């Protein structure tokens, strides 16, 4: 059965990978992203996907984007609240308040605006699957990354709470916790953490598998596999779960 799928931050990285995979299985897909150039590239590469510029922290932009989707589709089956930013790296005493707020804003406030819309439609439909992108940073303490870890732990709380609120209406809510994902973003994170901690990038990169029992990074398709499962009838009794796709992290080793 064809699903109607909305993905935030869908023009690159994990969101783009999710969009490609949902579209490839025949679903109708709409994405938003704050990067206008990336949205334009995506519109060319995947012309059947609705791609719009919207910042997940901007209520006016999100209301307009989601309202247009609602007008065209009349409902939604799957919503991936995927947008998140890594925020600053550093000891808390050195962190800037504006950078803290920006990190919490994209990860948590963006998910609020997205899930609020999804919940209203899905409750009325009596069905739907919300998939929130959390992180292994939401499962452990994460030295030098307190805003990001705090935001991701908050998303796990949001997931559990929305699953309880929406379960009686037949709506499922789950979170995926990616481990370190191969790609541009982790390249940037490794560089930032190396600078903040006075270590080489190779040392930081190696540290990302030290605490992972399978000694592996993950890739976008590993996450898409999980999202497609959570969106599917095969997961019809799966809700309220915080699911790591990370090769099994024992501990976030940061030194
Ligand atoms: P990314 O940095 O590659 O960014 C993906 C997209 O997000 C970009 O196109 C960017 O323009 C968009 N974006 C950023 N801020 C936005 C905003 N305010 N509104 C709309 N779009 C915005 O990120 P990614 O690696 O694809 O990460 C996606 C999600 O996965 C995030 O929630 C992230 O925290 C989480 N995650 C990523 C990793 C990883 O290793 N990459 C690991 C764990 C969790």
TrEMBL record:
Membrane spanning residue stretches: none
Which controlled-vocabulary keywords does the entry list? Oxidoreductase
State the Pfam families in the record: adh_short_C2
Assigned protein family: Belongs to the short-chain dehydrogenases/reductases (SDR) family.
> What is the recorded name of this protein?
SDR family oxidoreductase
Q: Which organism is it from?
A: Roseovarius pelagicus
Classification of source organism = Bacteria, Pseudomonadati, Pseudomonadota, Alphaproteobacteria, Rhodobacterales
């Amino acid at each position: 059965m064809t699903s109607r799928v909305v993905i935030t931050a869908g023009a690159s990285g994990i969101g783009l990978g999710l969009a490609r995979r949902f579209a490839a299985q025949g679903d109708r897909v709409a994405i938003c992203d704050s990067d206008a150039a990336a949205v334009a590239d995506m519109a060319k590469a995947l012309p059947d996907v609705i791609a719009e510029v919207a910042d997940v922290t901007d209520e006016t932009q999100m209301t307009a984007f989601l309202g247009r989707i609602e007008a065209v589709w009349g409902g939604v089956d799957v919503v991936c609240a995927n947008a998140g930013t890594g925020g600053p790296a550093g000891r808390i005493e050195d962190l800037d308040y504006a950078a803290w707020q920006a990190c919490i804003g994209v990860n948590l406030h963006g998910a609020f605006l997205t899930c609020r819309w999804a919940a209203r439609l899905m409750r009325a439909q009596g069905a739907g699957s919300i998939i929130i992108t959390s992180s292994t940073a939401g499962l452990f303490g994460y030295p030098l990354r307190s805003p990001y870890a705090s935001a991701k732990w908050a998303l796990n709380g949001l997931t559990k709470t929305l699953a309880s609120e929406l379960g009686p209406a037949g709506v499922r809510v789950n979170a995926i916790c990616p481990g370190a994902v191969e790609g541009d973003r982790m390249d940037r994170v490794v560089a930032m953490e190396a600078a903040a901690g006075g270590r080489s990038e190779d040392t930081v990169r190696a540290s990302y598998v030290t605490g992972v029992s399978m000694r592996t990074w993950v890739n976008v398709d590993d996450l898409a596999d999980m999202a497609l499962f959570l969106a599917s009838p095969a997961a019809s009794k799966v809700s309220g779960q915080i699911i790591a796709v990370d090769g099994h992290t024992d501990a976030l080793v940061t030194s």
